[in-house]
From TrEMBL:
It comes from Phycomyces blakesleeanus. Gene3D superfamilies: Dsl1p vesicle tethering complex, Tip20p subunit, domain D. Transmembrane segments: none annotated. This is TIP-1 family-domain-containing protein. Residues 353-378 are annotated as: Disordered. It comes from the Eukaryota.
Length: 753
């Protein structure tokens, strides 16, 4: 500013004195001079920094061809200069001049880095060419190869030093926004030829580029990694270790090499998947192969991604909601279609062939019976075995999926849904069976024969055995599925997923919230057990199939009991129990009992030969209880018994019911204790001259009816009576039932007081 400008500057105010005006002008002139001096200093520093940067660049470029390691020293100095200037600006913000200086230094640094990198890359590529890379190099090395390896090791080392000289934020080999895992520069160069070979075979017009054969390029990548692994581990890894790269965790040449190969796979998948979304079988096959590929890299090469956040090959598909949704829909449709084929087969509930039906457990175990030491095996039906295999194939399809939410979706929407469908199929079949076979029709005079008012008998078409066989096929189906579910509940895969769900309930709840309201009960019951790891995913399904088995076992009992009631009608009409005879006491069963006993024997033998021992014993006990109830209701409480009649009843029990039962159990009389005790009471010796003094002898079976009846009615004699009952072995009958039984004896009617 000139003197005239200063004098003419409008500093004057109405209250200024001449002295104040002069002081104001002087201060303004001094500040202007200081600004000019400061600007001059900035310019000098700016130019000096640029001159130093230029000198360092020139020095580095002059040394790079003769001594690459020495050429990296000026580059490091330039890197430190840029960092120092940037740090000064951050601490003492100035005008935009220094920011421009930082930008210029950055440009100089990256320009020099590119020029140095170009020279060192060319040296490294020459060393690779001398080794005939990418031909696999396997130790031990010959003398001629050793000299070439020395050049390779030096070139590799120089590139690592250049990369190390960059600060982490300065590594901008990739354009902004595309920064990836920092693969060491020499390894990236080694991967270039391999990537070119991959493109040639699998991304061009070669016949090896087929959408339906993902295993071809995945196998190629594994073979490539395997063939170069010895060279990488024995030769390249020591070079990296000696370079002293300050990186945590330690740089693994093997892992970075495989990671680089995976980028080819990822690029291939991004091009392939959109083209096969409308080909469900190809899509499913591709996902399966890629999941197996990732797993094999871990198992065969101990591969670990360079960073925990790095994605595996399968994540390219699974992290894309559209692609995962298409794969999931394909798997669900495959499973549903296969399920429909299994159920619609006319032989769906026929027994599986022996060589195919023995291994029906998910762990390969034969589903034997529940009885200890019982050699019988349960042959699953064709549908149950195929359903198990189908559900296990679904497990294998998603077993390797890393996402908990995606795995849980497969479990809920496919596997539990299929189990629900199969359960409903058997349940509805049982409803129909009960409606058609067990509902007693009303007899109409002149209409159908009396025999059809109960269940089908052995003399009719099909008969009881046909009904039992049909029920058994459903029982075997439910039993087979139940055993499979028990195995899954103990499988490490489901136990681990169950624990993960308990730790991350929100992941599972997200899947549950997306389910339709009408989804099967097995899935809907899960949400109440998120935080209880002890409750299996399959607990509800297992309970449902166990209840199906129990329901069918009850139907076994109903069928046999009704068959007995139908066949024993003539026996129930028998009216000779009260008659006395001078003939010898009977030594064989009643003639009317042969037919019902034959039907009972055939039915029980069928059940014994098919059911596990523990289940059979439960069914047999229930059958005996039904027969016992039938005897009590139709024989004992409906008739009067003479001595001969009581003996005949005892013979029918001993030589008929109990002798038949000894084919399957040791003491069948213990399964009908009430009937056994009633028979004892009816066959007690009657002696009218015995009185209560007879009790003094404490002799078993030495008590007359009249004394016995008096003691039953006398509360004061309860202790004595109880002791006598213990001798007789009477434990089940109540006092009222004992009186009812004793009154059925003809002899007792004449001595009753």
């Amino acid at each position: 500013m000139s003197q005239s400008q200063i004098l003419n500057f409008p500093f004057k105010t109405e209250k200024d004195t001449p002295f104040q005006r002069k002081r104001r002008v002087a201060r303004y002139a001094n500040s202007t001079l200081e600004n000019k001096l400061r600007t001059t200093e900035y310019a000098k520093s700016y130019i000096k920094a640029l001159l130093v940067a230029s000198e360092l660049s020139t020095k580095s470029l002059n040394l790079v061809k003769k001594d690459p390691e020495a050429a990296i020293v000026p580059f490091r100095q330039l890197t430190k200069l840029r960092a120092h200037v940037k740090n000064q600006i951050d601490q003492e913000p100035q005008d935009g001049s220094y920011q421009n200086l930082v930008n210029q230094l950055e440009k100089s640094q990256h320009k020099l880095w590119k020029e140095l990198n170009q020279v060192l890359e060319n040296n490294f590529k020459d060393s690779l060419q001398s080794l005939n890379w990418p031909t696999p190099i396997r130790p031990p090395y010959g003398l001629q190869l050793r000299s070439k390896l020395e050049g390779f090791e030096k070139a590799f080392h120089h590139l690592l030093l250049l990369q190390k000289s960059l600060e982490p934020e300065d590594d901008k080999t990739e354009p902004p926004g595309e920064k990836k895992v920092e693969i060491p520069i020499p390894i990236a160069i080694m991967l270039q030829d391999l990537s070119l070979r991959f493109r040639f075979h699998f991304e061009g017009s070669k016949p090896t580029n087929r959408l339906d054969k993902p295993e071809w390029y995945l196998s190629h990548v594994k073979t490539t990694a395997s063939s170069h692994l010895p060279f990488l581990v024995t030769t390249v890894q020591p070079i990296v270790d000696s370079a002293g790269l300050d990186q945590t965790p330690r740089i693994s040449v093997k892992d970075f090499f495989i990671y680089g190969l995976q980028q080819d796979v990822a690029r291939k998948l991004k091009k392939t998947i959109p083209r096969i979304l409308n080909q469900p079988s190809w899509l499913s096959h591709t996902v399966h192969e890629v999941l197996e590929f990732d797993k094999s890299l871990e198992n065969e090469f101990a591969y670990t991604p360079p960073r925990s956040s790095d994605k595996r090959s399968a994540d390219v598909i699974l992290d894309n909601p559209e692609w995962f949704g298409a794969w999931f829909a394909a798997e669900r449709q495959f499973a549903q279609t296969r399920y429909d084929e299994i159920i619609q087969d006319r032989q769906a509930f026929e027994a599986e062939a022996e060589e195919e039906g023995e291994d029906i457990g998910s762990n390969g175990k034969s589903l034997g019976s529940g009885g200890g030491g019982d050699p019988r095996n349960i042959k699953g039906t064709k549908s149950s075995v195929k359903i198990l295999n189908l559900i296990e194939s679904v497990t294998e399809a998603y077993r390797l999926v890393p996402s908990l939410q995606q795995r849980f979706r497969f479990l809920v929407e496919i596997q539990l849904t299929l189990l629900g469908h199969y359960h409903q199929r058997i349940y509805s079949a049982l409803d129909s069976f009960e409606a058609l076979s067990l509902i007693r029709s009303v007899p109409v005079p002149g209409a159908l024969p009396e025999s059809v008012t109960g269940v089908m008998t052995a003399t009719e078409t099909g008969g009881t055995i046909s009904a039992l066989k049909r029920l058994y096929r459903w029982w075997a189906s439910a039993y087979t599925i139940g055993e499979g579910i028990r195995d899954w509940s103990e499988d490490d895969f489901f136990l681990d997923m169950q624990y993960q769900v308990s730790q991350n309930p929100k992941e599972a709840q997200t899947v549950m919230d997306s389910l339709p309201a009408h989804e099967n009960m097995f899935a809907l019951s899960l949400s109440s057990n998120w935080e209880t790891p002890s409750n299996s995913f399959f607990a509800e399904a297992l309970n449902a199939f166990d209840m199906l088995s129990q329901r069918i076992e009850k139907l076994f009992v109903k069928i046999v009991a009704k068959e007995w009631a139908t066949n024993a009608r003539e026996y129930a009409k028998k009216d000779t129990w009260w008659q006395t005879s001078s003939e010898q006491l009977p030594g064989e069963i009643s003639s009317e009992l042969y037919v019902p006993l034959q039907g009972l024997r055939i039915a029980c033998q069928f059940l014994y030969s098919t059911l596990p021992l523990s289940d059979y014993l439960s069914v047999y006990r229930s059958i005996c209880e039904e027969i016992q109830e039938w005897y009590w209701r139709n024989i004992i409480t409906q008739n009067q018994f003479s001595k001969q009649g009581s003996s005949q009843l005892e013979a029918d029990m001993t030589l008929g019911i109990w002798k038949t039962g000894k084919q399957w159990v040791k003491k069948p009389e213990n399964y009908t204790k009430r009937l056994k005790e009633a028979t004892k009471l009816l066959t007690m010796t009657f002696d009218g001259e015995q009185d209560k003094d007879a009790l003094a002898s404490q002799a078993p079976f030495n008590l007359s009816y009249n004394v016995f009846m008096k003691y039953l009615a006398d509360p004061k004699q309860q202790s004595v009576l109880q002791a006598e009952l213990g001798k007789l072995g009477i434990e089940v009958l109540s006092y009222g039932q004992m009186r009812d039984v004793l009154r059925r004896r003809n002899d007792m009617l004449h001595n009753w007081n």
